[in-house]
TrEMBL record:
Organism classification: Eukaryota, Metazoa, Chordata, Cephalochordata, Leptocardii
Biased composition (Polar residues): 424-437
Domain Cationic amino acid transporter C-terminal: 578-628
Protein name as annotated: High affinity cationic amino acid transporter 1-like
An MF annotation (GO) of this entry: L-lysine transmembrane transporter activity
Length: 663
């Protein structure tokens, strides 16, 4: 039993070199990443969702629903931004969980992300097919049923083979397999058209607004503030998709800066789009008169602007295309990362030498998604996507909180993240002479210094290849220890780092790190109990039954006490490229929102999730535990595969963070 626990709990270890070197192509900038995030998040739902929430749940208060949903999504976005800047590797929540809480939970998250992206791509492709077919009065569907026939009415099968969705996904798979830059360009084109259509809707709609539709509380909040909160829970899923940016971090030119920026830009842009469309729609028509189907097109029809409907159709098609690409893009990268770690078959870790894309993972996962769209009715499976997304959000928030209070270092420091080699460069620093001494550095290098110890510095370059291949064997990650006296001709000035003022803050230890880790686990359990009470005993809570209120008060008090306990523990001094502000408060809030929404899902969804998870456990126990790279490393070292904490080498002190402790 102890061996099983060690296998489940072993964490992923990395070096600075591991985090910077990659077989993939680092070619994506902030604009590319932001476009990927917007394309994946801002699908065709914007043309339908605002009308549905306004008509049935919140009225004009839908604008507040989107605001609350955006703020809740921002909490998760900040957590993703910190970890993506710290650990710029493909795999997103899977990698973060592997480094923070262990292999078992990492596999669970990764396995569910595979299903989430596969179903997401297939369902969006089917929506694209149905929308496209509607332009021809369903003639494509009728022709397929007449010439090929219908599928047998077995549970879960569609009514007919959706050939259009199948072909679309194969085309998108081909685009993704051709290279990440080609994928980015394709996404930018469709996303730009979608954004322009949304902008057109908002601008044209401004000329037909009626302020009386918002006048008075009865008009603006017809369902009360509870309706706004109910609408916010629905609108929350409209912001799902920004995690594609974190999945792409291994292909970003400077992920420690571009990933956080792109995530924030994506969420802000999507909020402005949802806010603008919902505001225009509810100002153009009374909420009670909003159409249940094609609400935006019908609203413009009421004002005689029939041509706007065609523009909306173009935007919806482009939005669905970008969303299909965005759902399919992260799928092979998650499979590739899990295979690279030994948890899935090694063949999925192969990267094409020319396109720098995990080609086997791309072709296999894309083909499976295409087959799903061809024969299955995905309506009943769509909610499983929500479990995978919310579980990943919860794990990332918990991981950020845990890692802030661990001893040693995990990931890149702020100085180390200043430079990443491109696909045409190698990681390199000073050249060395034949006798191993440091020679004159290459011209045109940008230098980054940080204290190493009393004898030297770390130097990191921003471009150029190694002049001497022997140096690559002498490097540790991307750093080379230099003598306290700079080499002649180099132009570097020595610094006396021994005179720095000592930091009075205590450093975290193995014991305090374990206390924080267990505290976070207990907080998760308490949040599950709190959410279950609020959901399944909501009538008693609304009626202010004393026992229900007592349970809520006890659980919330325990959660707050543990948060204060964590806050009082010594925090890591590691200087991070990006930090969640007030993580001891914001991370638990993010965790609670996600856990609450998970428990709101239908029981049938959890049953289907359990079936998929059972299949995953067979794969993990039958293959993953035996081929795990971390297990191999532990066996080679002849030590227990379970490290108590992730600690830094003793010769590599941690760069201190001068930020406030509660940051």
């Amino acid at each position: 039993m102890a061996g099983v626990w060690r296998a489940f709990s072993r964490t992923k270890t990395t070096t600075t070199r591991d985090l910077k070197e990659t077989e993939l192509s680092r070619c994506l900038g902030v604009f590319d990443l932001t476009a990927l995030g917007i394309g994946s998040t801002l699908g065709a739902g914007i043309y339908v969702l605002a009308g549905q929430v306004a008509r049935l749940q919140a009225g004009p208060g839908v604008v507040l629903s989107f605001l609350i949903a955006a703020l809740a999504s921002l909490l998760s976005g900040l957590c993703y931004a910190e970890f993506a800047a710290r650990v710029p590797k493909a795999g997103s929540a899977y990698v973060y969980g592997y480094m923070a809480v262990g292999e078992f939970w990492a596999f669970v998250i990764g396995w569910n992300m595979v299903l989430e992206d596969m179903i997401g791509a297939a369902s969006v492709a089917k929506a694209w097919s149905q929308y496209f077919d509607s332009f021809f009065n369903d003639s494509i569907r009728l022709t397929v049923e007449r010439e090929i026939g219908t599928l047998h009415k077995a549970p879960g099968l569609g009514t007919y083979p959706d050939i259009i969705a199948f072909i679309l996904l194969l085309l998108m798979t081909g685009v993704i397999a051709s290279g990440v830059k080609q994928t980015s360009i394709t996404n930018i084109i469709f996303t730009a058209v979608n954004v322009l259509v949304i902008l057109c809707i908002v601008v044209v709609g401004c000329f037909y607004v009626n302020g009386q539709n918002w006048a008075g509380e009865d008009n603006f909040l017809p369902y009360g503030f509870s309706g706004v909160l109910s609408g916010a829970a629905t609108c929350f899923y409209a912001f799902v998709g920004f995690d594609i940016i974190a999945t792409s971090s291994e292909e970003a030119r400077n992920p420690s800066k571009s990933i956080p920026t792109a995530i924030l830009l994506t969420l802000v842009t999507c909020f402005l789009a949802y806010f603008g469309v919902s505001a225009i729609l509810t100002l153009m028509e009374p909420y009670s008169q909003i159409a249940s189907t094609a609400p935006l097109a019908r609203a413009f029809d009421q004002h005689g602007l029939y041509s706007v409907g065609y523009i909306i159709s173009v935007g919806a098609i482009c939005g669905l295309t970008a969303s299909t690409l965005g759902s399919l893009f992260p799928l092979p990268r998650i499979v590739y990362t899990m295979a690279r770690d030994g948890l899935l078959c090694e063949v999925f870790a192969r990267v094409h030498p020319r396109t720098a894309v995990p080609v086997v993972a791309t072709l296999v996962s894309g083909s499976l998604a295409a087959v799903l769209s061809l024969v299955l009715d995905l309506q009943q499976l769509v909610e499983i996507m929500s479990i995978g997304t919310l579980m990943a959000y919860t794990l990332v928030a918990a991981s950020v909180l845990i890692m802030r209070y661990q001893p040693g270092r995990v990931g890149l420091t702020k100085d180390e993240s200043a430079y990443f080699p491109t696909s045409s460069e190698k990681t390199g620093l000073l050249s060395t002479t034949s006798n191993g001494t440091a020679g004159k550095p290459k011209a045109g290098l940008s230098k980054y210094f940080k204290p190493k110890d009393s004898t030297g510095f770390v130097l990191m370059e921003t471009d150029g290849d190694q002049e001497n291949p022997k140096e690559q064997q002498q490097q540790q990650g991307t750093a080379t220890l230099m003598d306290s006296e700079a080499p002649s001709g180099g132009g570097y000035q020595p610094m006396d780092v021994t005179e720095s003022v000592p930091d009075p803050r205590p450093e975290p230890t193995q014991h305090t790190g374990q206390l924080v880790s267990w505290s976070v686990h207990i907080i998760v359990i308490l949040m599950i109990l709190t959410s279950a009470t609020l959901i399944f005993a909501q009538d008693y809570v609304y009626d202010r039954a004393w026992w229900a209120l007592l349970i809520i008060c006890v659980l919330v008090s325990a959660i707050l006490s543990l948060c204060v306990f964590i806050w009082r523990q010594p925090q890591s001094r590691m200087r991070l490229p990006f930090k969640v502000p007030g993580c001891v408060l914001l991370c638990p809030v993010s965790m609670f929102v996600n856990i609450y929404l998970m428990l709101k899902l239908k029981p049938a969804t959890w049953i289907r999730f359990a079936i998929w998870l059972a299949i995953g456990m067979i794969v993990y126990l039958g293959y993953g535990t035996r081929h795990s790279m971390e297990a191999r490393r532990a066996e080679e070292k002849g030590v227990s595969p379970l490290p108590d904490v992730i600690s830094a080498p003793k010769h590599e002190p941690i760069p201190e963070d001068t930020d406030r402790k509660d940051s």
